[in-house]
Amino acid sequence: MDRAVKEDHKYYVMSFSNLGGLVMPILLEMTFTDGSKEQLHIPAEIWLRAPKNVSKLLITEKELASVEIDPRWETADIDIDNNHYPRRIIPSRIESYKAEKKDLPEYRDIMHDVTTEKKVPGKKVKKK
Amino acid sequence: MFDAVKQFCVVCLTVVVATSAGLAEAHQQQEAYTTLLFNPRSGNLEISHRFYSHDAEFVLSRYLQEPVNLTSSIEQRAEFLRYVAEAFEVRFGDQQPALLTNIGSELEGQYIWVYQEMPIPADICVLTVKMIAFHEIWPHHANHINVEVKSGVQSARLTGDDPSQSFKLKDCPGYIALTDGNKR
């Protein structure tokens, strides 16, 4: 205990649930308050301890800002809504589609073409 | 010596025929996916249809009687959106087909996505989905429907013989599991 106080490290206990049933390694990306990132790969053997819920103690020198599970989609996880701490809202497909900025000509809304005023081209001045 | 050459030619010919037969049979599955998502954040029932672009171009070319290229023609993509909107309907209880708003379409790799939405109606327990896209050309074409609600996903595969399916939403108080007798 004294040593822990002396070292002044940060202690985090992360709890993971196996909701889908398939045993997978836990791939973590940790972002610290100073902006640095660290990867932590926990082997699938962790689920030998308990098939439904496991906990992992993490001791770091830096303060943790956020954690993401499987950031590069390398496991067979089909629900990425619950892969972030703090919780992040994942937009639905249609929400993403609406949010995209569509400046390219192929994205023009042809239904609104009739409401667009035509520009009258000005007279060209020929250079002598 | 001559026999050996003859035997070698027969083996080569067999390999070529076997390979070409394999290629002839290699075709993607004829199916499309439709997801109905009850999105509590937006308050909308969001409907996303995903089709193979190749199949969509083939069907639309029959429909329009002209060559179709969905990658280059936004007008034809708008036509396909209208085609899908006519082929798909959703009813709540015994009501008339719901009025859906066409959001748009986009290409992603080998797929074309079509988006529709409507406000989530109050107190819905049963919804019926009908999807007949591509069935006029391929009756065996499977339209896979996923209904995503808070409690989970319910699915059905609709073909030309059975183009509609009722879903009893699990969040509804009087939920009873669907059986074949619930099909319409």
Quick synopsis:
The complex is a heterodimer of chains A (128) and B (184). With 128 residues, chain A is mostly beta strands. Chain A contains two helices and six strands; from the N terminus they run H-E-E-E-E-E-E-H.
User: In terms of quaternary structure, what is this?
Assistant: heterodimer
Question: How many beta-strand elements of chain A?
Answer: 6
Strand order of the largest sheet of chain A: 3-2-5-6
Radius of gyration of chain A: 26 Å
Major sheet attributes of chain B: 6 strands, mixed
| Cα separation of the termini of chain B | 70 Å
Q: Let me know the average pLDDT of chain A.
A: 85
Largest sheet of chain A: 4 strands, antiparallel
Task: Indicate the low-confidence ranges of chain A by residue numbers.
Answer: none
Structural class, judged by helices and strands of chain A?
mainly beta
Helical segment count of chain B: 3
Estimated share of beta-strand residues of chain A: 25-35%
Count of individual beta strands of chain B = 9
Helix percentage range of chain A: 10-25%
- Helical content of chain B stands at 25-40%
